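thought: fold this chain, then report.
action: predict
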Amino acid sequence: MDEPIAEFLYFLRYERNLSSNTVESYGRDLQDFFRYCHNIPNGVTKENIVGYLENLRTQARSSATIARRLAALKAFYRYRVREDPSLEDPTEFLLSPKLQRKLPDVLTIAEVTRLVESPDTSKSPGLRDRAMLEVLYATGIRVSELCHLSVNDWWSDPPRIRCLGKGSKERYVPLGELAIQWLATYVERERPKLVRHQDCHMLFLNHRGDALTRQGFWKLLKKYAIVAGITKPITPHTIRHSFATHLLENGADLRSVQEMLGHHDISTTQIYTHVSANRLKPAYQAAHPRA
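observation:
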């Protein structure tokens, strides 16, 4: 199955224009399935796929993981049938498991403040780290979008950044005053010290002069969360969740938040209305005379 998988992944990357991370995830899921059924002599059947999904359940895999594996198989066989209509789609009548929508973890405004102020800006690379944290919270962009920003992707008048989201879709997101101040200071004072290659146009650089990676930023975030005294689980996406929730709590409309987050479907953004409503319950119960 290696060649059909490779052709499918090529289709996803260059015709569907999906990100490298998404394509790699599809590849891993498909390889896992075909490793499971490598002894099947007469091709894959619906029963083989059902058996694979049951095997995942016995391994206590989450419903989200099982749904993602099935989605990868469905996409793969739809592609195969499209290329060769004589083939059958063994996934055609399989239903994905129902997912319980989990509300995302968010930080309080006080926790975000402690986090973004935790880098020591008097030492290298504190200015870079402060600028990255400020930009991430000010815009709600994904960490991959943050790490792929170039020096030409931000403006101070009006303050905004340009980023490429999923499917290489371009969008512009406003920048707050604090974020633009720290970003400008980093570009003026610290980025020149990090540059090792004159033809490098990436905005946020590591000590080798290369673009800081998602993994590199993840390590920095964990370190600064400890410095800030944040004990709850935190990932780069936690900052994105916090950005959206805080906007809605303070009166932003859902469509604007959707546009800033780069969500294709507003139903994806609506999860944050549940988060903000959940966070308002204690205040309502404490203040309303008939709560």
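thought: worth noting. The beta strands are 154-156, 159-164, 170-174.
final: tokens above.
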